[in-house]
Amino acid sequence: VQKSDDHDNGAQISSPVISAFKVFQQELDTKHDKYERLVKISRDITIESKRTIFLLHRVTSVPNAEEVLHEADVKLDGVRQKIGLIAEELRGEDLYQFHRAFTPGIQEYVEAVSFHHFIRHRTLISLEEVNARLVFMRHERTDAKGSSEGSRSSPAVLTFQVTPTDYLLGVADLTGELMRMCISSVGNGDMDTPFKLSDFLREIHDGFSYIGNTGPYEVSKKLHTLRQSLGKVEDACYTLRVRGSEIPKHMLADVLSSRTAIMDPDEGVV
Amino acid sequence: VQKSDDHDNGAQISSPVISAFKVFQQELDTKHDKYERLVKISRDITIESKRTIFLLHRVTSVPNAEEVLHEADVKLDGVRQKIGLIAEELRGEDLYQFHRAFTPGIQEYVEAVSFHHFIRHRTLISLEEVNARLVFMRHERTDAKGSSEGSRSSPAVLTFQVTPTDYLLGVADLTGELMRMCISSVGNGDMDTPFKLSDFLREIHDGFSYIGNTGPYEVSKKLHTLRQSLGKVEDACYTLRVRGSEIPKHMLADVLSSRTAIMDPDEGVV
Amino acid sequence: MSVTEMFSYIQGFLSADQDIREDIRKVVQVLEQTAREILTVLQSVHQPSGFKDIPSKCLRARELFCTVRTQIGELKTKFPVEQYYRFHEHWRFVLQRLAFLAAFVVYLESESLVTREEVAKILGIEIDREKGFHLDVEDYLAGVLIMASELSRLAVNSVTAGDYSRPLRISNFINELDSGFRLLNLKNDPLRKRYDGLKYDVKKIEEVVYDLSIRGLAKEQEAGGDK
Amino acid sequence: MSVTEMFSYIQGFLSADQDIREDIRKVVQVLEQTAREILTVLQSVHQPSGFKDIPSKCLRARELFCTVRTQIGELKTKFPVEQYYRFHEHWRFVLQRLAFLAAFVVYLESESLVTREEVAKILGIEIDREKGFHLDVEDYLAGVLIMASELSRLAVNSVTAGDYSRPLRISNFINELDSGFRLLNLKNDPLRKRYDGLKYDVKKIEEVVYDLSIRGLAKEQEAGGDK
Amino acid sequence: MSVTEMFSYIQGFLSADQDIREDIRKVVQVLEQTAREILTVLQSVHQPSGFKDIPSKCLRARELFCTVRTQIGELKTKFPVEQYYRFHEHWRFVLQRLAFLAAFVVYLESESLVTREEVAKILGIEIDREKGFHLDVEDYLAGVLIMASELSRLAVNSVTAGDYSRPLRISNFINELDSGFRLLNLKNDPLRKRYDGLKYDVKKIEEVVYDLSIRGLAKEQEAGGDK
Amino acid sequence: MSVTEMFSYIQGFLSADQDIREDIRKVVQVLEQTAREILTVLQSVHQPSGFKDIPSKCLRARELFCTVRTQIGELKTKFPVEQYYRFHEHWRFVLQRLAFLAAFVVYLESESLVTREEVAKILGIEIDREKGFHLDVEDYLAGVLIMASELSRLAVNSVTAGDYSRPLRISNFINELDSGFRLLNLKNDPLRKRYDGLKYDVKKIEEVVYDLSIRGLAKEQEAGGDK
Amino acid sequence: MSVTEMFSYIQGFLSADQDIREDIRKVVQVLEQTAREILTVLQSVHQPSGFKDIPSKCLRARELFCTVRTQIGELKTKFPVEQYYRFHEHWRFVLQRLAFLAAFVVYLESESLVTREEVAKILGIEIDREKGFHLDVEDYLAGVLIMASELSRLAVNSVTAGDYSRPLRISNFINELDSGFRLLNLKNDPLRKRYDGLKYDVKKIEEVVYDLSIRGLAKEQEAGGDK
Amino acid sequence: MSVTEMFSYIQGFLSADQDIREDIRKVVQVLEQTAREILTVLQSVHQPSGFKDIPSKCLRARELFCTVRTQIGELKTKFPVEQYYRFHEHWRFVLQRLAFLAAFVVYLESESLVTREEVAKILGIEIDREKGFHLDVEDYLAGVLIMASELSRLAVNSVTAGDYSRPLRISNFINELDSGFRLLNLKNDPLRKRYDGLKYDVKKIEEVVYDLSIRGLAKEQEAGGDK
Ligand SMILES: [Mn+2]
Ligand SMILES: [Mn+2]
């Protein structure tokens, strides 16, 4: 038997089947390795995006929102660098082939960047605006290799396109953060932001119910949470209105300024 | 309001609450970062262990098993290096605090190393033997830093202890690989290995049913698969016996040698 | 070592593990009973009549914490000290409750935030993992957050009891706490969920302060010299 | 762009996506019908009478592959070429079936393993993703594995039909295939599961060869000049 | 008849069935689109500004219900009338949504509970199964329960919009509805579950009325005398 | 005895068991209907008009409990008394509802907590298992907890109806209940979960009392001296 | 009509529906008992001794089908004929079992595939939905597939009983069946899943024939010339 | 009696119940250990060498059943006898395992089906509920079905061990069992599911017998005349 196996083995080495499978082996390993690298980058993006969101929530409690926004933008630049790594990995590939590897990270980035955008502009960032910031200059070191294939694609610029579905899922998650921000604003005595958030959230909610179940399954799954968030925000506005009803409107300004006055002396007590 | 906020902010900076929370922030971030690093190492360990298992399955078809075993051992050395990184991360930590981060990788490693051990020694590797190979020399570069704290723990040696549960779960998965090996052996005309595997698998099965539901929940979950694997192996042995029954025992050797002879000329046909 | 021996060995380990867990469960059950007793003592501050003798309630609670220390002392003997996290789940719940109770007592006594060190001292445990049975930062924070929600209830009930200045002090305290928590990067874990609850506590207290403000009730007592 | 406009835009994208999928589904359904027809043609080789006119069956199958090429040509027009993997799930199943059928035809014709290039040619598609609608390496391998299981059935039925040499040839072929697959590092995916099935095919064929050997039937025909 | 002939004949049956389902699915998809448009129109009553022109929104919704009737008319032609229950699952979901929308329009117009007859009329269908495409009792009830939860949201938002009398009217309406449902012996699981949700809606609206009462806001407007 | 005989004999056992369960199910269904009727009677106390004639509503409920006793009497005849726990699941749900209704009636009549003995008497059953069909402690407690949540609703609605003193009395009652429950070492999961809900009821009622206090509405009536 | 009246009216609908379902369930239970009896009669053909008197077993089964017809007659009276699909789920399972039993009897009698018309006749029902209680194509096919798996068992057991020619006949029959099914475009999930099982039956029977062939047992009897 | 007194009193009840359950759990844990030991003893019959000394293994198992009887005797003392069903869930699992082990021992000893009476006797319990701790019919049947699947494994392994006559005897036995079960009208879900598994065991054993028959191995040994 040993002899025969030896013989087989000899045959295998030269066999076209075996050499074909050696090619397959490399192709599969290369693909899996790439997938794994993308998963890791995606995890990094998720973590950094989450931290950016935490940072952005601080705007409701600090005097200089601009400072926080700037800091967040710097953090998001870091995240975009990582998305650039994904774009690098996907150069010449079909984005959808590895989509499952990085979709969690991209969704979290959309959540963070749209939150940042809302705080600054009080509007919903568009998909184009998201994508416009995902244009990368090609790294120096790849130029050498790239020059040979450079004729095919644009040589110095690399782009990453967020899919409409990832954008949608990111925006769906954004609503949770908006709800948190709304409750915080009420807690900080902000009488204005909650109503703005309520209107904005209602617009997004109506947008999602307009899309309904035509979207991907994951969107439908998030609709319930979205509806809950809207309910919480509407309740907060309701409470503000109901409580505010107890004083005549012309007194409101007085009351607010006196409140500040009342609260100051207390610091000594604490 | 702006004024008041400014004031608050001033207070916050010097506030003991805020400075305490800044410490917490760092403590939490450090912990999360470590967790994340461990997850990534664990994923690497999983992938490399799986590839080692694939490699080990080739022993049933190649002439020189020793070569494959050696190659696998080299691969496993690489995996052990990575486990060394985990040990490095866990230096001075409570292993169980980060256990969830690296348990999948460790289980897969136990599966791979016990498979390797079975092929070479036809016995079950013990937990001690697994752990005995997870002793690492401390890296040079950490010596400088380590010297100050060196007095507390043994200075040059780092160990990693696989938990009995991870060992058990790895061995449970091993049975699946043993079943695959058994079926392959039959396919290769090996009349001996399947019976050896059957006995070994039965021993492991009886061991698991002796432990029963006293073990962790994940073990109970894997018992069903284990029973199925044993069934497949027992069926294979049954078939070998039933088919073998059709020739008188004294003819068996003749038949086997003639079979080889028969098969050789065919290669021309293919 | 044969397969059978190996499994006997593992089975031995598993049995020992189960025994340890059984022992821990028993002590934890007793601890929970004591924690419920402290809670009953402290809960009574919410009663209109309860506001008067907060100090005596705190003293009573402090006494019960002695029992807690003894029981935790007992707990420590049940497992190897360096395997804290292996059994963490068993006492995590009660430890967070105890951290809350300690934080609540300290707040009632001094209207200040208990430090992790103080909680550890009250419970007779450590804050450094290396030194022994300790209080995890997450468990300390969870306890603080439970207290925050208790304080929002206290703000409401102190108005009912006619104490109009307390809500303002609670408001300032809880706002500082909120600022502290904003510095943290939490994962999507139970702590994150609890922290989301803090926003509602802050909101509730803000509403109470607002109610007092528009009625001039806050000022009134202030002038009259609170506490 | 207002929120409403944004959602209209996204809704437009989703509708377009659904339309594409609907179109793809229709063509794929027709493709599946053709694949079933080819299968019916090739399945008949398992009948005792079927062994005689394998060549004519292969010819008939080759004709039907013309239809397949036309239908895949139709499929290609339904979506942007660079978004192959976006819609992959829709045709993955049928493509693997077709790869199997192509591999089976080629095996019946020449007793050799079809290359990925050949399958691609038979189906009128590419093997490089960059060049257009292509055959994924996984789909090709899945097709080959389906064939392996068909061959183990063929080995059994060729004995019934009195052809005793074919099983030996199949055995060698399938053993080489098995060696090839052993080189791959598969994930825990459907392909891995299928590959586990290959072991049973190898085993089954080995058993047939064994049955023939102990009865001297393999030798017998060999001597008599098989095929 | 040979086996082949018989199966070809059967395939005719299966194809016919699949074609019917395909046709139904398409019409239902269009219906769902219209239902979502009506929802978008009616949902805008929750906006602060939306309370002013409820009548015009209802008119717009009524127009869209014309389209619904046409589309359901289309749906009816897709299958034999007596096979309603064979294909029920395909349109059950959208029918419940439409029943909800009809109930909501009628409530906004007249603050009364739509009857099953009215819903049927608005949708251009029957209530007796014998007479044609009809509205099942369970589907009607499901629609009514969806409306109840929308009304609790409306009570909240009407206060935000400064309308203090509406919540009282909603409260009375929803209490009556609750009593009605208590007459039913619900077994059917999904309906029962929905009904359990009604309790929360009742409670929620009662709390809104409470908030208004304690501030004298309920009376205030009532005194002003609307409705 | 042959295997066939043995299995025929066993089938006798199984049939008998199924028949008993069928009988129980029927009686339980009727009981549920009566329970819903009592609920409808008692629910009306939440209406603004309902506060006036609470006594007459309680009388009506008491009458309906006669029917309940008859129906439970019927239920008792359906199975051997010592097999209570074998079929417990069938009536557990309705028994908890009935315990709640009994507790609610007693509270409305006397503003006191019904004892287990009283509930048992109202339902015509025992409290000692040995004496016959009885009320389990857990089912009694579940009924009491359902009532607690009904009382938080009652506190809200009594304010709407202009009764400002009732919430204070409810608050005291529910606080006492809460202290009582804190004496229990609840392990049993569903009961524990229900008990967690009690905290929300306590808090809700405290907020009602707060709302009254801050507006001076609580004192006002108290001064007027009811109860 | 008041809300109360309306809901009372609706309760009438719901009760009627529940009563119908209860009635159907009872008859179906009896039908299942008869189906099990027929199965016991036919199962005995798998016994070594059972091969001798297949005709008498078929006669006995035919008699029991009389009972089936009576019971299905009973079932038909329990609901309006045009609502077949409303209650389909209740009898679908037993109807498929009965279709299988009818197909098995016919196969044992004549070694031919029962037509849908024949099954319908044996069960005393229709094949056209318009004409009354009928046998759905899908249920007929499910019955046929259950039989296929029974035949693979029969092939195995007939060898044990020493009947070496039957497996070959079964093999031909099942191959024809398989070709037939390949003409169908199955979408329906449960049927598709069952059909996937057919492949295993085909393979199993081929292996039995192989076992006979390689031992010269197939030819042997054929030469002897049965059938 | 005050609320506090009442709840203290109730806590007494709850504690008693928890203590009983704790006691039961402990005994059951020990019982499970013994059951696992018996299983280990009996499982060794599957080893090639195990077939020789079945009698000695049975003796060893019988000895361990003495321990079981003592432990069940212990269990009986832990709760009032008429509350069997209240705590049934605690020991149901182990009781079914023990019923299986008893059935397996009896089969190995005498190749006959253990009766419920015998199982009860082996376990030292009753079969009439009235007489004390008893073996429910369902638990007995579950045990028998677990044994059936063990027997199909035994049939396979006895062939491997060279015992060719045992599978035939097992086949007859299991067929009789199958007929017996077909007399039962199983509703109870877990038992029904287990019974569905019996079909696979029957089929599996038939295939073993087939393999022996076609090779003349069944007859061969029979001729040699064991049993
Ligand atoms: Mn988020
Ligand atoms: Mn594995």
TrEMBL record, chains C, D, E, F, G, H:
Domain of life: Eukaryota
Family annotation (SUPFAM superfamilies): Translin (SSF74784)
Annotated Mg(2+) binding sites: E150
GO terms for biological process, alphabetical: RNA metabolic process
Cellular component annotations (GO), alphabetically ordered: cytoplasm; nucleus
Presence of keyword Ligase: no
GO molecular function, one term: single-stranded DNA binding
One Pfam match: Translin
InterPro entries according to UniProt: Translin, Translin_C, Translin_fam, Translin_N, Translin_sf
Record key words, sorted: Cytoplasm, DNA-binding, Endonuclease, Hydrolase, Magnesium, Metal-binding, Nuclease, Nucleus, RNA-binding
CDD domains given in the database record: Translin
Subcellular location: Cytoplasm; Nucleus
Main location: cytoplasm
Keyword Transferase recorded: no
Function: DNA-binding protein that specifically recognizes consensus sequences at the breakpoint junctions in chromosomal translocations, mostly involving immunoglobulin (Ig)/T-cell receptor gene segments. Seems to recognize single-stranded DNA ends generated by staggered breaks occurring at recombination hot spots. Exhibits both single-stranded and double-stranded endoribonuclease activity. May act as an activator of RNA-induced silencing complex (RISC) by facilitating endonucleolytic cleavage of the siRNA passenger strand.
Record text on subunit structure and interactions: Ring-shaped heterooctamer of six TSN and two TSNAX subunits, DNA/RNA binding occurs inside the ring.
Family, as annotated: Belongs to the translin family.
Name by which UniProt lists this protein: Translin
Gene (name only): tsn
